[in-house]
Amino acid sequence: MASGNVPEDVVREILLMLPVKSLLRSKSVCKSWYTLITKSSFISTHFNCNTSLKRSHCILVKRILPEHVSPTESVLSFLSDEISSDDHVPPTEIIIPHFNHFLQMVGPCNGIVCLTDHRDIILCNPSIRDLKVLPAPSFNYPNGLLSTTLGVGFGFDPHSSGYKVIRIAELYSDESGGYWFHSVKVEIYDLNTKIWREIDAVVPCIWPFPCSELLFNGHFHWWANYEDDDGESILSFHISTEVFQQIRLPCAFPEATDRAFLVLNESIALFVFNTSEQTSFDIWLMIEYGVAESWTKYFTIGPLVQEVRPVVFWKHELLMEKANGQLVSCDLNSERLKEFQVYGAQESLRALVYNESLVSIKLGSFSMLHAVVSPDIQSTTNSKGIRFGLEV
């Protein structure tokens, strides 16, 4: 597999240093390069190198374009260190065709994210423009009950070397034009078997507001409301064992206040807004995972000069959304705000710290140890950005 006089192991080491975009182009150089780049071992090593060396890290932003730009069109945008707050050139945008109003974006897991509008669920790897629509669950619910998606989770199970999508669904009846809540069900889509299945679990209703879902430490988390005296808590789901756990909030947590949770310093960080204007908030850290007694008040941000909503931590800054849908960042030391030329419909911004990968969804070999890349990744471009090719 040598290229000219260059030994094949040297070629491999050079290619491992390239970003995904360059590797996709390099597959066309020659057959030996294509074979190397599409090997599962290369894909896994490339992703692990990027992760350990923190190469190709960026922010993946999901937003709904304002109506004056495009009627309810959802786009994904990449923000990197090269894009400053003074740039007036918009970041690279990937337009999601057919689907509108994706309210949730969860992950990432090995470069793959899960999006849902509480009806359709899709998985995509925006690095390689790879997208797949999951089949709808086909369960026969008793007594003619209907279902709606309250929230989804997504993660990798190292024991089965496969990925799972968790759907928390609310069952209800629609009688005489009225809505009647019945129960909450948990359903799992296994990417290895490609089928939905139900699991026997009693879980509370979850609240799908912004920053209320989180993949962390091999668990997926939702903000939940328990009907007993426990009230609000974090609902945790172990991706491998499929066991739910309740994580209690700090004792000093006030009721009836806006909240969010993100990851900070490799811990779950809980945001508690101090005022209805959302210009000041406390940050709590759960020092020991799953132990409610380890919640520690970390610091307070604000009062800031304008209303904001936290979106994601990025290095030493907190990215937030202004009331008008604009993305801004706040330096955690100086509390100085910087504005980005990125806008979305109000409360439509979601963001994740993202590491690009070559993992493909379309061919079904989805494990990091068995992943392969489609030889004909198709995407078209237009004046607005790059469009996904759809696979259902």
TrEMBL record:
Q: Which species? A: Escallonia herrerae
Highest taxon of source: Eukaryota
**Gene3D superfamilies from the xrefs?**
1.20.1280.50
Looking at the record, the residues that make up the F-box domain are 1-46
- What's the protein called, per UniProt? F-box domain-containing protein
Checking SMART domains in the record gives: FBOX (SM00256)
NCBIfam families according to UniProt: F_box_assoc_1
Q: Name one Pfam family in it.
A: FBA_1
